[in-house]
Protein: Lrp/AsnC family transcriptional regulator
Amino acid sequence: MHPKLDSMDRRILTVLQKSGGISNAELSARVNLSPSACHRRVQRLESDGFIRDYVALLDPAKIGLSTVVFVEITLSGQADELLEAFERDVARVPEVLECHLMAGTADYILKVIAESTEDFARIHRQKLARLPGVQGMQSSFALRTVFKTTALPV
Structure:
């Protein structure tokens, strides 16, 4: 664990990861700390970069994005310029939720969200296949999400 985090910081971060929209009064009650001390700690956690942002997590199915696809990308080379161009351009594809540089058989793994298999076929053809240096792609469709969290173990 990070040496700057004490047990109270960890409790605050645990609650905020699951309920980021709660008021300071509710947060302070849940972690058993005075509102002013809680507010100071949250401000310090924000300024020290432990808390990067606050977001609303949407239900993908409710907005019509029920297809999750993991795409392994193999590039034609490993030159820095090619990797940088790929990373720059893939970040501009709104359907790509995550992109990870890998060690192993694939150069990158992407997590892609789509409306349907037909919609993914369009994304694959019009966007992913046109990214710089793409030599090959292997796609795996998620049948069902068993477990998903954004909360890190603190």
User: Anything to note?
Assistant: The longest strand covers residues 67-75. The radius of gyration is 20 Å. Residues 85 and 132 are 6 Å apart (CA to CA). The chain has two domains: 7-47, 60-141.
